[in-house]
Amino acid sequence: MIVTVHPSAVQGNIQANASKSCMQRACAASLLHKGRTLIINPGNSFDDLAAIDIIQKLGAKVSWLENGTMLVESRGVNPLSNSIHCGESGLSIRMFTPIAALCKQQLTIDGSGSLLKRPMHFFDEVMPQLGVSTKSNEGYLPLQINGPLQPANITIDGSLSSQFLTGLLMAFAATNAKDYGITVLDLKSKPYIDLTLEVLEAFGVKIINHHYQHFEFTEKGFSKEGNEIQYTVEGDWSGAAFLLVAGAIAGGITVKGLNVFSTQADKKILQALSDAGAGLSIQEKQIEVRPLPMKAFHFDATDCPDLFPPLVALAAYCEGTTVIEGVSRLQHKESNRAISLQSEFAKLGVEVQLQDDLMIVKGMKEGNQFPLLKAATVHSHHDHRIAMATAVAALRATGPVVIEEADAINKSYPDFFMHLQQLGVDLNITNN
Questions:
Q1: Which terminus of the chain, N or C, has less C-beta within 10 A?
Q2: What letter would DSSP give residue 212?
Q3: Domain boundaries, the chain
Q4: Which DSSP state fits 348?
Q5: Sheet holding 253-256, edge to edge
Q6: Is residue 208 a contact partner of residue 215, using CB atoms and an 8 Å limit?
Q7: Cα separations in angstroms, 387 against 1, 181, 408
Q8: Active-site residue, 266 included
Q9: What is the 3-state secondary structure (H, E, C) of 259-271?
Q10: E strands along 46-186, which residues?
Q11: Where are the beta strands (DSSP E) in 147-190?
């Protein structure tokens, strides 16, 4: 799909899409909860659909009610297939592998696209400590496992991704592992673990968090069999970050459906917008943002690396040089996101430098007026966030910006371009 975004002003109200971080965790928890789960406001991204397919393959029954609510009926992990496919979802592969290992059956876990290039050495090193026979393709997919997983006191490395810990927390909780704990070294993306613990608590699981260094399991596991759980999926701060930046660049908008008390890591976009000097009004049920003269800012994205793309789009329209920390977190995304951002924003006339763990974005020079960016043809690198970042940056460019392979947005935010159109953006979509 090729999308051409013309310079446009934005205005109006928009409802945030459902958070795939919440949705995928809710799917996993509903599989492990022996009973009925009603998931309200379920997501529809490719990653969400992959999670739904996985829990069905692992034995859950999924149906849809007339009001759009998703009903999950489960009796735990009882695979109906000897293989599961995680699409391109990094969270799914890392979260569902320990969960799938709860059963005695040998399973093959695979994925596609960029997921085939993401390292899985973690499972080779950790799963055998839990009684799970594990064989990877020299540290990559496909992965063969044979459980059942037996909880134990273990120490893991949390520097690559917190998603591995999320899977272990889920699996340990399902075994009622009250006498065991997980010690974590150098944990990254702590807010995502907060989200995992929050979802688990909604399903009756209580885990004691000792300063993100040790996680202790109490006697309270998943709610008793037969109990019905209702879980509402929050609005997605990751996707909304692009909309909020669009409002700061190109016009006043209101984004609804976001929980300002959320544990989602990408809520920190509000801090970046505030530091840049954007017009911002934060209310309990909606966020209003409007353009004001903006200045460069310094931001640490180590715990929220998915914010790099919208932050680069924002920094391009700020006077001065913006510094963003945490580049090391970008290597194993859908693309090598640091290089992708540098390459595609260069085509738009924005200089992005990489220096150790820093990304340095050269914004407007003093006294410059919009527009700064130039018309160009860019490529998504099959990365949903690169596609969205370049689309937002295009709103105040000198001419149209053509985005190739723009259908990458389906991974997390299928309605993104439709939402831009609803806000008044002039864009054309061509299916190639």
A1: C
A2: T
A3: 2-17+235-430, 20-218
A4: T
A5: 12-15, 253-256, 286-290, 279-282
A6: yes
A7: 11, 40, 7
A8: no
A9: CCCCCCHHHHHHH
A10: 61-64, 70-74, 83-85, 106-110, 133-137, 140-146, 154-157, 181-185
A11: 154-157, 181-185
Q: Which tokens belong to 257?
A: 């459906």
The confidence band for 365, taking pLDDT boundaries of 50, 70 and 90, is: confident
148 Cβ neighbours under 8 A, 6+ residues apart: 101, 102, 103, 104, 131, 132
H helices of 11-162, in order, are 20-32, 46-57, 90-100, 121-126
Looking at every residue in the chain, the average pLDDT score rounds to 94
Architecture per CATH, 2-17+235-430: Alpha-beta prism (3.65)
Angstrom distance (rounded) from CA 139 to CA 176: 30
Which pLDDT value is given to residue 426? Answer: 98
Please tell me the pTM assigned to this model. Answer: 0.91
**E strand map for 191-291:** 207-210, 214-217, 228-232, 253-256, 279-282, 286-290
Identify the band that residue 330 occupies on the pLDDT scale cut at 50, 70 and 90.
confident
Asked if 318 contacts 297 with a C-beta cutoff of 8 angstroms, the reply is yes
One fold for both 2-17+235-430 and 20-218? Answer: yes
Q: Which amino acid is at 401?
A: V
User: pLDDT tens across 105-123, in order?
Assistant: 999 999 998 899 888 999 9
All residues at 6 or more sequence positions from 152 whose CB lies less than 8 Å from its CB, including other chains: 129, 130, 131, 180
Q: What distances in angstroms separate CA 419 from CA 50, 161, 353, 413, one per listed residue?
A: 23, 31, 31, 10
Q: Would you tell me which CATH number, out of the four given (3.40.50.1000, 3.40.640.10, 3.65.10.10, 3.40.50.970), belongs to the domain 20-218?
A: 3.65.10.10
Which is the catalytic residue, given 48, 236, 266, 306?
A: 306
Of 359, 365, 351, 356, the C-alpha closest to 311 is 359
Tally of CB atoms within 10 A around 259: 17
Structure tokens at 161: 């991704």
Phi first, then psi, for residue 305 (nearest 5°) are -65, -20
Query: For residues 394 and 403, what is the distance between their CA atoms, to the nearest angstrom?
Result: 10
